[in-house]
Amino acid sequence: MQNRFLGTAASLDRAAPMPSRLVGKRVARGCVTLLAAFPLVDYTLRQFLHPLGAIWDKVVLLILALVALNRVMRGHRPDVFAWSKYAGWYIAYLIALLFVGLGSPGTSFDGFRADVYDMLFGLLLPFVVEPEDAPYFLYVAAALAMLIGLDGVLQYVLAVPIPPGWVDVGEHVRTRVFSVLKSPNELGAYMEMMAPLILGMGFAEKDRVRKIIFFIGGVFCLITLLLTYTRGAWLGLGVGVVLVALAFERRLLAVVVVLGVIGFFLPPIHHRIMDLFSQVYYIKASQGGRLVRWQQAFDQLAGNPLFGAGLGRYGGAVASDKGLSIYSDNYYAKVLGESGLIGLVLFFALHVRLVVEVVQKVVRRAVGPNRAIALGGLIGVIALLVHNVVENVFEYPANCLNYFLMVGLLLLWSRTFDGQEENHG
């Protein structure tokens, strides 16, 4: 059967389903569909069926693991991702730290779970998703992101009330949108990853109606990103676009110019950016803000530079809940403080290899309309990694899971390129 692609197959949802070649395909498809719609599913279940909302993703992970195990026992041996090996080294190191920290087993286990849990979904993907099905899940994720983008714009129009702590002293904004993710920072991170991917789908799409839908949805996502007033997300997307433009597509620099002009002429956005360069912001950052929090990471490291303070003991949600540390507002500082230089090197190696694999397998091999989606996906990946410099983005389950899910789906989708490359050539 011909390989399908989001942009070239306007009939993606109308195409006849492929015959099930692997055991549990329908179950796996349903589970991965839920993961692609994670923000809405998680919000709905926690809002209306809280007991189920607290465990549903664990149930999904267990089901996928059982499906994968069943397939492996039946002889199914898909190619795993290249970054999986680096993830294995990182996880093995964290397991060693987990045993070292058994003096406080609850804290160590919670810290280990927080660092590894969402990664497991990405590692399982080759065993539960067939490459030709990857576009369907990308389509589901894009559709949900567009709905959330629309919801964000509506929240701004309705001036939904927000806590005063979401706005800096002396700052006047109509509202900061948050949608079903319940936090403007979390929503900003979600939009910075999904918006470029959706716009890439718009450029790749051949059907006129779908192209318009993708472009309108992508614009809604960008507007919502702006209306979160999350500077880290703006920074991440800007750096992602610039790096990808310089490496692969110089015409993308025009996007940076347009966004820069918008930011300069819209007073709330202009004020929020320029506030970063004010003496007042520097004083606040030095007294109790990001600068002092980053310094604390090195203070934690001083006692044990190689291995850090221990899992769950610094910089993240676990340490904060247990009264051991405030948030580091830098996920890399969090990794450094709790798992030391060795942990940070392994963590960097994992994500550098992941980006390299996306470049080699997706971007460099994508031809024709596929390239727009490949570049959009890469921009989103880089944006989220950059955003982690100024915020604990991977502490947000929706964003950490979405990161590994989107990367895995893009890499699986690239495995359908062989026939397309020949046809293009």
UniProtKB/TrEMBL annotation:
<dbReference type="Pfam" id="PF04932">
    <property type="entry name" value="Wzy_C"/>
</dbReference>
<feature type="domain" description="O-antigen ligase-related">
    <location>
        <begin position="218"/>
        <end position="348"/>
    </location>
</feature>
<keyword id="KW-0436">Ligase</keyword>
<feature type="transmembrane region" description="Helical">
    <location>
        <begin position="112"/>
        <end position="129"/>
    </location>
</feature>
<dbReference type="InterPro" id="IPR051533">
    <property type="entry name" value="WaaL-like"/>
</dbReference>
<keyword id="KW-0812">Transmembrane</keyword>
<dbReference type="InterPro" id="IPR007016">
    <property type="entry name" value="O-antigen_ligase-rel_domated"/>
</dbReference>
<keyword id="KW-0472">Membrane</keyword>
<feature type="transmembrane region" description="Helical">
    <location>
        <begin position="331"/>
        <end position="352"/>
    </location>
</feature>
<feature type="transmembrane region" description="Helical">
    <location>
        <begin position="372"/>
        <end position="390"/>
    </location>
</feature>
<feature type="transmembrane region" description="Helical">
    <location>
        <begin position="81"/>
        <end position="100"/>
    </location>
</feature>
<feature type="transmembrane region" description="Helical">
    <location>
        <begin position="396"/>
        <end position="413"/>
    </location>
</feature>
<feature type="transmembrane region" description="Helical">
    <location>
        <begin position="233"/>
        <end position="248"/>
    </location>
</feature>
<feature type="transmembrane region" description="Helical">
    <location>
        <begin position="136"/>
        <end position="158"/>
    </location>
</feature>
<protein>
    <submittedName>
        <fullName>O-antigen ligase family protein</fullName>
    </submittedName>
</protein>
<keyword id="KW-1133">Transmembrane helix</keyword>
<dbReference type="GO" id="GO:0016874">
    <property type="term" value="F:ligase activity"/>
</dbReference>
<feature type="transmembrane region" description="Helical">
    <location>
        <begin position="253"/>
        <end position="270"/>
    </location>
</feature>
